[in-house]
Amino acid sequence: MKKVYVFLADGFEDVEALIPIDVLRRGGVDVTTVSISDFPLVQSAHGVNVEADIMFEQGDFTDADLLFLPGGMPGASNLFAHKGVCKAIVNQHMAGKKVAAICASPAVVLAPLGILDGKKATCYPGFESVLAESNATYTGDLVTVDGNVTTGEGPAAAFPFAYELLSQLVNKQTADQIAEAMRFKHLMA
Questions:
Q1: Which whole-number Å values give the CA distances from 6 to 9, 57, 133, 153, in the listed order?
Q2: Given this model, what pLDDT does residue 132 score?
């Protein structure tokens, strides 16, 4: 079973975290939510309290197939301010393993860490200049995959982003089946 860790910081964007968590779990992926604050309860950008599965200090993260950073502000800034999260993301990327970020997190976390250097990526509109400064090519697409890095644009990208991650971790057939069961394909018809 594939293993994913989702880092949750106060101010994370609700749907950008919870939709991928839901989709990946429906697809049989072992998803662990990780609080990077001093408490297991993490508050979203819109005041929803989510109890994380573990505290950051309890995780090893070397067994991860994917490390995932939701967006939202100040969630993305809080992720970048956490040295342990930054180290885990860099180590994951250097090992050639999968890293994913959506909304502000590609620009606020991945770009300053050098992970997007020379890559194609997307992010929330308004953060494109940060990608350009890091020598990344901004696509403006809902979802962009370049090597081991997957980026998403924002809240509206949460479902296609989640199905892309599920395709990568399990397979496209499973992702398509989950999308159909969740009636996502009906929206795209």
A1: 10, 14, 26, 17
A2: 85
SS (H, E, C) 19-66: HHHHHHHHCCCEEEEEECCCCCEEEECCCCEEECCEEHHHCCCCCCCE
Biggest distance spanned by C-alpha atoms of the chain: 45
Q: Is this prediction's pTM over 0.90? A: yes
User: How far is residue 144's CA from residue 149's CA, in Å, rounded to a whole number?
Assistant: 8
188 CB-contact burial (10 Å; exposed 0-12 / middle 13-18 / buried 19+): exposed
Task: Work out the burial of residue 13: count CB atoms within 10 Å of its CB; fewer than 13 is exposed, 13-18 middle, 19 or more buried.
Answer: buried
Residues 34, 86: Cα–Cα separation, whole Å: 14
Find all residues with CB under 8 Å of 174, minimum gap 6, and list them: 27, 28, 166, 167
Q: Counting every residue, how long is the chain?
A: 189
pLDDT over 90, % of the chain: 93
